[in-house]
Here is the input.
Amino acid sequence: MDTIEASVDQPRGVRFQLNGQTLLLTLFLTMVAFLILTPLFLLLLNSFQVAKPGEPVVYGMEGWRLALTSRGIREAITNSFSLAITRQLIATVAGIFLAWLLARTDIPLKRFLEFMFWLSFFLPALPVTLGWILLLDPKYGLLNQLLMNIGLVSQAPFDVYSYWGIIWVHLTTTGFSIKVMLLTPAFRNLDAALEESSRVAGAGPLKTLFRVIVPVMMPAILVATILGVIRSLEAFEIELILGVPIGLHVFSTKIHSFVTHEPPQFPPATALGTLFLLVLVILVVLQRLYLGKKVFTTVTGRGFSSRPTPLGRWRIPICIAVLTLALGITVLPTIFLVIGTFMKLFGFFNIQDPWTLENWRQVLKDPILFRSIKNTLILGFSAACVGVILSSLIAYVIVKTKYAGRGFLDFISWLPFSIPGILLGMALLWTFLLVHRFIPLHGTMYALVLAMAISGLSLSVQVVRSFLMQLGDELEEASRISGASWLYTYRRILFPLLLPCIIVVGLLEFISAARNISTVVLLATGQTRTMSLLMLDFTAGAELERATVVAVMIVAMVVIAALVARFLGGKFDIKA
Amino acid sequence: MAEKALVLRHITKWFGRVKAVDDLSLDIESGQLFTLLGPSGCGKTTTLRMIAGLERPDAGEILLKGQPIVSVSRRIFVPPEKRKMGMVFQSYAIWPHMTVFKNVAYPLELRKVSSSVIKEKVDKVLSLVGLEGLGDRPAPNLSGGQQQRVALARALVYEPEILLLDEPLSNLDAKLREQMRLELKLLQRKLGITVIYVTHDQLEALSMSDQVVVLNQGKIEQQGKPRDLYEQPQTPFVRDFLGKTVVLRGVARAVEGQRLRVELTHAGGVMVECPCHSPDSLSAGQKVYVSVRPEDVVVTEAGYASGDNYLKGTVETVLFAGERTECQIKVGEESILVYVPRSQVMDPGQSVSFQLPREAVNVWPA
Here is the structure.
């Protein structure tokens, strides 16, 4: 019984215990890696492959040559960057002001305003674009007409089909909302003492904002801006509707045009895609490494905001201005979208008897609509289920286990964030075509579900992960010490506590699936078309009246889901 | 001889390149309140978690009543759920989605105990910790002190033989802490349970424990009864960690059996006679330190007496600290911290005599 061993003098390396748990986790890791990396790898590989899918493989640089020398490529790439950077800069400056106003001043209606900005994030891009077209079309846009009729201007001042039109629509859908959502909590957590010492020293509120608050919050601001640039580079549907008609391409629309060409030109599409993927991955990696992940969770401690900065006599005017903006980006386009559904000819207010219910009747009668509603619901719920299971497992492994491969798992779960929807769609398309003989996925709903599950992975893992980190190991450990096995602990402790978070993640995945266009546009067929794609088809086919009807339905679906998610998230204190 | 409740043999734990626990061996008797005391990072919580099975040692073994629950060389590891110990975490770890009753009943439910027996046991343990009637309260509605009692109840309800407490009082306010110190001690006595207690607070350690082991950087500094550690610290670390100490510089002049005469070189050359527990380790002419507790110093009127162990000095600062007065008294080049009872009035600038009682003084090699 008296086994006394020599004490260990050297540190052991990472302990690799070959047991059931490690094996299972490694299997899981391989599966996830396979899921995410295979399409990307195939994309890269096939940019060097010049034959069509199905034909014997021929390698060459033809794809790259075409991609880089094709007409308009250089402009498309420049446009992508220029649009992204410009709108991010505008959004950031506006975001700083808005976040400061909402978080640190005594502006009235704070909660309502914040809610409206939050809501604007969920409004799908295409429906909102349609609404803005009604207002800002150069020929018959209502706002233009109004201004011309009053006599302020002699010709239409606003043209939504333009560089600035694209920027404006982007700003109103995600630009302002994301900045407000990211920066407001960070501003709120700022130690009030920093501000107050500046005021005591004699600086007014604006000076304090620029000389104290902004520099202190710079890491958060930078991260938000870079994230925004990354996301902006992926933009697709707005540019498709507003840019392509005037010959303004971005890289995503160029890829789309290559693939939808008759016959499809895969080599240049994959080459272009690979090029952009490289740029994006580098940006994402840089952002992660350099700026770190904890920038938004500024710990508060006791330095909580005691007194909001008073705005004095500017209080009401500023509130009205922000209110106008908030309503202008949410209610305004939505109202006009709804109005648009009742128009005989989209945008033409001046014709005789412009109103009709016919659009609604026609669309509701069409069996295509019900099929696409069904597809949307199937896609939404399936993507939600798959996404929830996958992301909660991944998040659990990353946060709660000591598995050696969890760093790698963390990294791959971030990758989908840097992959533009259109690229993911194309990569998966290629993959499905390749394996079609063995696994017939092409043209099925499974293809779409897989695509949405992968694309939503990054955000879902993040949400579950931050929730799990708040939970604390001791809750599980207390259960183990009391005598419970891991499974019993999971059933009675972890799962009930995770449930609200899981529901929110499921809803977010549902919303994402319901309104997605760029990821599924290359993968869907006539049978598997979702409502968003139906709407796109109507728009492309100049049947704008029907497009608006479908658009209104999508908006309704998405907004309801978003409100439910917010209600639950607020109740259980979940931060996305 | 009865089996020791818990034995640790040569336990070592690495975290990366840091040795958190270094060749630690402990014997814990049944029915004791055994405390692991030390500053943060000394390895006390890691040791507790290894006892619980929440961490695995890199070397050594732990025996529960003679049976190994972990042995690195023999590749034995009993998982935490099979060790039959109770544990209270520093954060209490009360499950927020359950009521008080459900939290406490959890260990019994998973052991498939019948619900009537569960009700009986839970009610009994709730009244034991002073929470009777609160069974239906949802966990998030509890105060810190109540949460702690629920954690305690949950750990005790399945009558474990060993109770592990990880800094259970550190998140409570001062008054509650005082109250809980007493309650915990009484509870332990009443149940006769072996308690392993981890804390950085020396007051808790000294007032509650039967045995204290002081840890520093993963190693044992000293183990013993609280009073022994306080009055006869064997290392400078223990001396300085437990209570306040006055340290004076000196040179050993004569060694006479168990007694040592030291000249206080910086306090005017006064001779001090000290007990010496290891006379062989010190020789005449060697530089030493003389230590004494501030509360052991006896302050008298100026010019009262003279001779060995009597010093004269001037009061520099006087701080009224409620139950006592803390003074700094200057003697030669040394500034000595002295505690005097409230009844004794001291003024800055006053000349005083004071005595370092022979039995209260300790000698240390310099």
Remarks:
- Residues 1-16, 296-303 of chain A have pLDDT under 50 and may be disordered.
- The domain at 19-43+357-576 of chain A is CATH 1.10.3720.10 (MetI-like fold).
- The interface with chain B takes residues 1, 3-8, 11-12, 472, 474-475, 477-485, 488, 492-493, 496-497 of chain A (CB under 8 Å).
- Residues 77 and 251 of chain A are 6 Å apart (CA to CA).
